[in-house]
Amino acid sequence: MEQANAVIIGAGVVGCAIARALSARWDDVFVLEALPKIGMGASTRNSGVIHAGLYYPPGSLKARHCVRGNILTYEFCAAHGVPHRNTGKLIVAATAAEAPKLTALMENARKNGVEGLSIVDRAGIRAREPHVEGDHAMVVSSTGIVSSEELVKAYARVAADQGAHIVTHAKVEKLEPINGKVRVTSEAGEIEARCLVNAAGLFADEVAAMLGSPMSKHRIYPVRGEYCEVVRAKADLIRGLVYPLPHADGLSLGVHLTKTLWGTVLLGPTARYVADKNDYEKDREPIEDFARGAKAMVPELEAADLVLGYSGIRAKLVPPTGHGIADFIIQRDPDIPAVIELMGIESPGLTSAPAIAEQVFEIATEILG
Questions:
Q1: pLDDT over 80 at 248, yes or no
Q2: Structure-derived torsion over alpha carbons of residues 70, 318, 288, 312, reported in degrees to the nearest 10
Q3: What number is the average pLDDT over the span 242-257?
């Protein structure tokens, strides 16, 4: 049977970033991806935003890895020719009554170590976004956009150049902890790993259950986020990134407007729990619902200016009856020391990927030496 120092389950942005980190030190690093191509899930079905780290509780992994990942992502993109742009963004308080919420968000961001923040009034909003309506807004200078697909490919390319093996059409079928290692049976064959990294995203709880791990108690609840696209004739209404204040329930950051690298404008994502982790298209949100949210920030936008776009599914750890922000779970399995478990890696996972990879590298060093 083939032996490996590390096997990573999942070739999304986090799995590929981890492969890049581990293959810089160890030979025989394998990434197993169930789908025909890398990054086909949440890694590329998102807004493509390089987040600053505003929203997350101080001291949380989400806060720490987002702030660190913001720096690392810009550095990696510049070094490896990944299309990106440091655009900054506005978070808009629609009325004066929302101003205290904006101030509280700014204070939270500062506790997280986010720099380059300022508050502007209505005139300041219009100077940056002439068609956006609001009372006040926070300007976040470190936010940007990136081609998420090219980012995933670049992490994978660097990993492969360092000797990592990235295998698609390799759905994991069986996992057996044996003598301090893990035997992995996939559609691509069998391999024995000294270190197994569960970076399976939406399916990380199912991988943990396959291992017989107590970590499978952390259930992942799929939450679908849908997008509309603004028609080209109205794309000039937005210059950069425009967000409302985040939802109080922590389910999403709110339906926002994103000027992409290609000059189009995305509106979304929504947030709705779904039963099926593969349900991207059933019962889509009406365009009129998107239009109502958009008009609150950009009064000139109408339903006729929108067309349905793609959708993605977040790996939420918070059940439909819950509320608040659940943190990333990144830890060595308590019962299977050869396994590193990653669960609930949703937004800001794209931004956080290289920082998450640093933490996984530290844990892998404990396992592999």
A1: no
A2: 60
A3: 84
